[in-house]
Design goal:
Strand content: 15-25%
Shape: globular
Helix content: 25-40%
Radius of gyration: 17 Å
Distance between the termini: 36 Å
Structural class: alpha/beta
Bound molecules: zinc ion
Amino acid sequence: MSTPCIITVAITGSVPKKSDNPAVPISVTEQIESTHEAFEAGAALVHLHVRNEDGSTSADPKRFMEVQAGIRRHCPGMIVQFSTGGRSSSGDARGAMLDGRPDMASLATGSVNFPTIVYENSPALIEALAGRMRTFGIKPEIEVFDFAMLFNADRYVRNGVLDGPLHVQFVLGVKNALPARRDILEYQVSLLRELQPTATWVAAGIGRHQIEVNRWSLELGGHLRTGLEDNVRLDKHTLAPSNAALVARAADLAREHGRHPATPTEARSILKLGDPPAATA
Ligand code: ZN
């Protein structure tokens, strides 16, 4: 039996538009259907942003709840992770959807420049979001865009703001943040092993770096993230037809490396998550 590899699908994000790729799911129905196809293709975890009907970014808790309810109905056991990213709201509103009790939520443990904005995460906001996640029994996924964020996460475990074992995502290839270089990922992984030996990790490569970062992750023993949020193309000349197509490609790559796409049960066990909540109508 090969080692399971958790495939995360980031279906929408806050940046890509229908004009970039018509397959980017925007409406609640599209998001549920796209997640379901990705689930059937091997994704065990969905990373979720929501949009308004016109495609603009939203942090509306009601919208998060509608999509989550559909996913729980159609994708038994799949891990649901809400984004608390800063493009759709600011300050405390970034955690307003957490009372919807997803399994996980993203948590960036520091600030960084993005292509056109500052991704601002003050110490007070990080601690408030972490506290809210603890209140609702949500496991954070630590988003690391910069080395300081990794050391901050380690300190937050040691001073009791966060609970271990951590699940960390290394993001590579965002303009103005860390570039997609294998030696950077290698160093991040070695630091994580030293600081938080029980942590699990995944890496995301943005745009054309998606597939090479997937490959490095498998070579270094990590999990996989793919999806239209990070990359809307299959290759230079071809738009990805769906999130499922990107997941299928990641699943093939995992098998080539002697791994298999984790089932939701396997993924929950690896991430030390509880049983999935019952689906509600
Ligand atoms: Zn995201």
